[in-house]
Specification:
Blueprint lengths: L9 E5 L2 E5 L4 E4 L2 E7 L12 E4 L5 E4 L4 E3 L6 E3 L15 E5 L2 E5 L4 E3 L6 E3 L16 E6 L2 E6 L4 E3 L2 E3 L19 H5 L2 E5 L9 H21 L8 H6 L12 E3 L5 E3 L2 E8 L15 H10 L1 H8 L3 E6 L21 H31 L11 H4 L8 H18 L1
Antiparallel strand pairs: 1-2, 3-4, 5-6, 7-8, 9-10, 11-12, 13-14, 15-16, 17-20, 17-21, 18-20, 19-20
Helix pairs in contact: 2-5
C-alpha cells in the first residue's frame, strides 16, 4: 500500500479520509480529482520536466508533481526522500523505504503492517502452528512482542530437555538460565552492581526471575515518561495500549560469567534489550547511563525483589564518546605535518633565545648604571645627582698648593 498521499499539490486531511486542492494559478483536473492543471499553461518548448504555468507576471514557471521538488536549475524535478532521518516526512511505525515520488512502510520480523499502511502490529505466532516450534509435546507456546517462547505446562519442569512432573519425594531446583551470547553493543551498554551476601544469600533461579521481572516493570515505568532518554519513539506512547508493557523480563539479560564472586561481594552485570519496533535508529539496547539511573532511582524495589542490598552501581564501559571500537587509535600525522612541526619548534627556540638575551641585557644594565662624572663643583651640576670629583684633579691641585705654602713658611 502506498503510504504517501497522492495529491499533486495540497492534501487536506478529513476524518477517515483526505481531499486534494490546488495552489494559486492552478485548478483541479476534471479527469482526476487528485491532480491539478494550470489555469494559464505555458506554450510548448518551456523546458519544465513536470509542469509549466504562467503566474501574475505572465512568465513561465516550473513546478513539480507531488513528493518532488525543483532542482537548482528551476526546471528539473528530483524525488523527495521522505525516509531521510534529517527531514522526517513519513508516518511509518518501523521501517521506511523510499521510492520515486513516494515511500512505503515495512515491518521488522515478527510484525505485520496494519491496514492503514503505516503502523506495525505484533504477530501472535502461537495462533499458527507453522510459525512456532517447541521441542517437547508438553511445552506450550507463549507469545512475546515480535517473537515467542516455549514453556512447560503447569506443574511440569523442563528437566534434561523434557517437560515432566516430579516423582514422589523428588525435589527439583531449576538451574539458572544460560546467558545468551551478547553482541559488542550489548556488552558496551551493560551495567554492574554489587551485592554483599548475608544469611546464606544465593542468586538462584527464583531470584534471577524475580529480578528480571521487577527490572522490566521499573524500566517500563521510567521509559513511559522518559521516551527520549530511553531512545524510544515518542509517538509510541500515544498509541500503546495501557495493558501492554514496553519491557518484559525476557529482555533483561545477564552477561556470561555473572553473577560472579569478587572480593567477598557478588557482582551482577546485565543489559536490557529495547522493545522491537519501538527504538530510535539502531539503538537496540537501552543506553547504559539511562539503565544506571533506573537502577539507582528504583533501588529499594529491586532490593526487595532479590532480598539483598544493592551497591556500587556503575557502567562497565566508562567512555561517553561513541566510537567504532573499544580502543581509540591515535591519528597519525600526514607526510607534510613533520615540516610544520619542525618549523614551529625552530621558531619557538629562536623566540626563547631572544627573550633570554633581552633579560641578561636588562640585568647587566641594572648592575652597572652609567653615571656622568662631575668635573666641577658648580651647584647646577649637583642638582641632577651626586657630583664626583676626579682623583687626578685633586692630586694636581694639592701639588700646586704645596710650594706656596712652603714659601710662606
Amino acid at each position: 500500500m502506498n503510504a504517501s498521499h497522492d495529491c499533486m499539490q495540497k492534501c487536506d486531511n478529513a476524518i477517515g479520509s483526505y481531499n486534494c486542492s490546488c495552489d494559486a494559478f492552478f485548478k483541479r483536473d476534471p479527469t482526476d480529482w487528485r491532480k491539478c492543471e494550470a489555469t494559464n499553461p505555458c506554450s510548448s518548448g518551456h523546458g519544465c520536466q513536470h509542469v509549466c504555468f504562467k503566474g501574475s507576471n505572465n512568465q513561465a514557471t516550473c513546478t513539480c508533481f507531488a513528493n518532488y521538488e525543483l532542482e537548482s536549475d528551476e526546471k528539473t524535478c528530483k524525488d523527495i526522500n521522505e525516509c531521510d532521518p534529517s527531514n522526517p516526512r513519513h508516518r511509518c511505525n518501523q521501517i521506511c523505504e523510499n521510492i520515486q515520488g513516494s515511500y512505503k512502510c515495512l515491518c521488522q520480523k515478527g510484525f505485520e503492517l496494519k491496514k492503514d499502511g503505516y503502523e506495525c502490529e505484533d504477530i501472535n505466532e502461537c495462533l499458527d502452528e507453522d510459525l512456532y516450534h517447541c521441542t517437547d509435546e508438553f511445552q506450550k507456546c507463549v507469545n512475546t512482542r515480535g517473537s515467542y517462547k516455549c514453556e512447560c505446562e503447569q506443574d511440569l519442569y523442563f528437566i534434561d530437555g523434557k517437560c515432566r512432573g516430579l516423582e514422589k519425594n523428588e525435589t527439583y531446583k531449576p538451574q539458572l538460565p544460560k546467558p545468551r551470547d551478547p553482541s559488542k553493543k550489548e556488552m558496551e551498554e551493560a551495567v554492574q552492581f554489587s551485592i554483599t551476601p548475608n544469611n546464606g544469600f544465593e542468586w538462584d533461579f527464583k531470584k534471577d526471575e524475580s529480578f528480571k521481572e521487577q527490572m522490566a516493570i521499573v524500566t517500563t515505568d521510567y521509559c513511559d515518561v522518559n521516551m527520549t532518554r530511553c531512545a524510544l519513539k515518542d509517538s509510541r506512547r500515544k498509541r500503546r495500549s495501557p495493558l501492554s508493557e514496553l519491557y518484559t523480563g525476557d529482555q533483561v539479560h545477564l552477561l556470561p560469567g555473572y553473577p560472579s564472586n569478587s572480593s567477598g561481594s557478588l557482582k551482577v552485570a546485565f543489559y536490557v534489550q529495547q522493545p522491537l519496533g519501538l527504538f530510535i535508529g539502531n539503538i537496540s539496547v537501552l543506553p547504559r547511563n539511562t539503565l544506571a539511573t533506573i537502577i539507582t532511582s528504583h533501588k529499594s524495589v529491586l532490593e526487595t525483589a532479590i532480598g539483598a542490598n544493592i551497591s556500587g552501581v556503575e557502567t562497565l564501559f566508562k567512555s561517553t564518546t561513541p566510537t567504532t571500537s573499544a580502543t581509540a587509535v591515535p591519528v597519525e600525522p600526514s607526510s607534510n605535518d613533520w615540516k610544520w612541526i619542525a618549523i614551529g619548534v625552530g621558531v619557538g627556540v629562536v623566540v626563547i633565545i631572544l627573550i633570554l638575551v633581552f633579560v641578561i641585557w636588562c640585568l647587566k644594565k641594572r648592575d652597572n648604571p652609567r653615571v656622568k662624572p662631575a668635573w666641577d663643583d658648580s651647584p647646577h651640576e649637583q642638582q641632577g645627582g651626586i657630583a664626583l670629583t676626579s682623583y687626578n684633579r685633586d692630586h694636581q691641585a694639592l701639588s700646586m698648593e704645596t710650594p706656596s705654602d712652603s714659601k710662606q713658611t
